Amino acid sequence: MLKGKGLISVFDLSRAEVESLLETTFLMKRLYLSGALPAPLRGKRIALLLEKPSTRTRFSFESAVISLGGYPIVAGERELQLSRGESVEDTAKVLGRYVHGIGARVLKHETLVRLNSNSGVPVLNLLSDVEHPLQALSDLMTIREHFGSFPKIAFVGDGQDNVLLSLMGLVAKLGLQLNVASPRELRPSESVLSRVEEESERSDAVVEFFEDPYQAVSGVKVVYTDVWVSMGKESESERRKSLLRPFSVTSDLMAYASTDAVFMHCLPAVRGEEVEGAVLDGPRSIVWTQAENKLYGSMAALALII
Ligand code: CP
Ligand code: NVA
Fold first, then answer.
1. How many Å lie between the centroid of ligand 1 and the Cα of residue 278?
2. Nearest-angstrom CA–CA distance, 112 and 107
């Protein structure tokens, strides 16, 4: 099903493919923790291209390749001839002759599309300015692991966030419920809204938009946020911070969620901005398990795709 296909956007996945990725993430966690992981990547080399910094995704993805018997080859942008003007197409054609798959974190989403259509090997999106599919997949696994089902989620903050877009896509594919609270100026674009709406109609998902974070989190079991200034958006820093100030996830805001609500964040976090330190480091936070599960999500994607 997924074998040999790139994973660039969650919107390209079928519902069955999303379900298979989630089930395989659970399976990988069980196999890893019982010391029974198979080695489906034995003899396979995977390139990791990083145009932006990464801690969790880089280490989880690289660890996943090694744990499944493969060999990762990591390169930052400055180490590649790309930085001296070689085209993405030429880079892709050459890499495809050496490796069996490419994981890439890119400045521009379009670079992923160009890598995928020219390399002849599957390309996995390790974060772009538009989406963060592997993050959202392992996050949904974390939610189901915690609750045993998928309760309603509230995302509070930047409505144009890459993690949010992947979460919205998956929620819409799977027929789940999501409230999004963001300033009107940072709402998702019309084209994103119509894609989410179209998918939701098919699946009976409910994705609702709010300007009042208190209304959005009222009674929900998962409160999710991400940074106000994503990588590459530094020039908009002051404007974003002032628009997003009322959307900080504080203890006061968490009190409006369900009594058993959890707090999630893809990390890295800025305590005192999008989340109060007491929430991130408090008993309702599941961010460390969320980060751990990225390892199993990467294993699942690699095992199914490569
Ligand atoms: N959540 C996440 O992708 O973290 P990194 O930027 O550290 O990889
Ligand atoms: N939205 C954040 C996610 C980091 C994992 C960014 O793009 O910087």
1. 21
2. 10
